[in-house]
Write a structure and sequence with these properties.
Elements: E1 5-14, H1 18-32, E2 36-48, E3 54-66
Antiparallel strand pairs: 1-3, 2-3
Length: 71
C-alpha cells in the first residue's frame, strides 16, 4: 500500500529555549494534524529586549504528516 504525505510550515515561540519552541510547535500541530511523521527545523531566531538580553526563541519548522485514505 502506498501513502501520500503533506508538509505544512509552522512557527512556534518560547521564552525558554529553541528546544521548548520545537516541543510547543509539535504539540500544537498534533492537536490538529493526524499521522505526524517528522519535523524539519527550517529557521531559528531569537528576539532581544532593549537591554540586549534574549527574550524569546522562535523556530520555523516544516512538519510532515501522512494523509488518511478514504477507503
Amino acid at each position: 500500500m502506498s501513502s501520500v504525505a503533506r508538509v505544512s510550515e509552522i512557527t512556534a515561540r518560547s521564552e525558554k529555549s529553541f528546544e521548548d519552541a520545537v516541543k510547543i510547535g509539535i504539540e500544537r500541530a498534533s492537536r490538529t494534524l493526524r499521522n505526524l511523521r517528522s519535523a524539519w527545523i527550517k529557521e531559528q531566531e531569537v528576539t532581544l529586549g532593549s537591554d540586549g538580553q534574549i527574550t524569546g526563541y522562535e523556530v520555523i519548522m516544516k512538519v510532515t504528516f501522512v494523509l488518511e485514505d478514504d477507503a
